[in-house]
Amino acid sequence: MSKPLPELKIKNFTSRFPVIQAGMGVRVGIGKLAGAVINAGGMGVIASVGLGNYAHADGRSYVEESNHQLINELRAARSISGGKGPLGINVMVALTNYESLVRTAVQEGIEFIISGAGLPLRLPAYVDEKTALIPIVSSGRALHLIMKTWKRKYNKRPDAVLIEGPLCGGHLGFSFEQLKHPERCSIDILFKEVQDVLGEEGKDIPVIEAEGVNTREDIERCITMGFAGVQIGTRFICVDESGMEPSGQEMYLKATRDDVVIIQSPVGLPARVLKSPLIERIQRGEREKFNCPYRCLVTCDKKTVPYCIAEALLSARAGDKEHGLFMTGANVEPIKSVISVAEFFETLK
Ligand SMILES: Cc1cc2nc3c(=O)[nH]c(=O)nc-3n(C[C@H](O)[C@H](O)[C@H](O)COP(=O)(O)O)c2cc1C
């Protein structure tokens, strides 16, 4: 019999299993997924990007619609979990409505905020004392900058630190050059860098691993390395409760490692995705037809990008293989079936 997995304690809440469900934007990580994860003993996360893509619904502006949808998803998660937590949001620094999403989620009484895709230097200004702050970093240098700024300006320190390694899904905090040699910025190297920055004073701050976790064995390996927990993305795309339609999930179930590529995303960062007709067209230098009714990203220039990332992710989520952009972690190949969240957590007992 293997040893029970430890609980994950962050600030003043605890989850039974050391598992955070990754924020997966544009309606993959929504209320029904987060609620099911909380029920099963993990930490549930609503990804706040792309919730308001049905702009101007009922006369609401993009910002108002985003907040409205965020509230809906947070309440849906709480209703599924019987009001329990820990429930949080993932919010990308690159979003034009960053502050507004954070303030809305705090008003809804979330327990934690995970924030990356840029340095969340101003995050403490928008929250109350209760909310746990978890920055995403992909280097010790990024954490150093965040901690220095938070201490000086807000007298705060992170409640946990999440390290996204070079094999994780979605946007990557590395240059293309670094990604050619992932072994030089591997998760164990990054873990040491982060521990050095945290030092003696920050020894009690939990450090979370994010890349490539699909099984109990993967979690055990991370715990043995010294991580307090893991964040899981790609495995949770292929569960009954994910926001991704079954025809989109098929793309992941049949993917091999050769189907995984890294592209330059309109966000301005490299991103790991599955090969698809859209990627082939982009790689041939073609441009998709789109208009940009709302400016969702600070870093995107609609005149130069070859497609709208929000539309492409919405198409993926709807299972449109022709137009979808399917973000993935590098370790997608072993995922061969759609299971329920409860079944996944059953394997951790
Ligand atoms: C479909 C998809 C969407 C994602 N969306 C976001 C996002 O909105 N914000 C974010 O910070 N990270 C996002 N990520 C990255 C994940 O939060 C996570 O850190 C990563 O996927 C972990 O690696 P894994 O997928 O190998 O488990 C996304 C990843 C995937 C696969």
User: How do the SSEs run, as a string of H and E?
Assistant: EEEHEHEHEEHEEHHEHEHEEHHH
- Enumerate how many helices there are, as a single number: 11
Bound molecules: flavin mononucleotide
**Order of strands, widest sheet:** 3-11-10-8-7-6-5-4
Oligomer: single chain
- How many domains comprise the coordinates? 2
CATH architecture of the largest domain: Alpha-Beta Barrel
Q: Could you tell me the CATH topology label of the largest domain.
A: TIM Barrel
Description:
An eight-stranded parallel beta sheet has the order 3-11-10-8-7-6-5-4. The protein has a three-stranded antiparallel beta sheet with strand order 9-13-12, with no helix packed on it. Strands 1-2 form a two-stranded antiparallel sheet. It has helices at 31-40, 62-80, 98-107, 140-154, 176-180, 187-198, 216-225, 246-253, 277-283, 309-317, 341-346, and strands spanning 8-10, 13-15, 19-21, 44-47, 87-92, 112-116, 132-137, 161-164, 170-171, 207-210, 229-232, 260-264, 270-274. It has eleven helices and 13 strands. The chain folds into two domains: 8-243 and 336-346, Aldolase class I (TIM Barrel); 246-317, no CATH class. It is globular and about 50 Å long. The protein has 349 residues and is α/β, with parallel strands linked by helices. Bound molecules: flavin mononucleotide (FMN). The site of flavin mononucleotide has 29 residues, from strand 5 and strand 11. Flavin mononucleotide (FMN) is lined by residues 22-25, 28, 47, 49, 90, 92, 116-117, 136, 164, 168-170, 210-213, 231-234, 237, 327-329, 331.
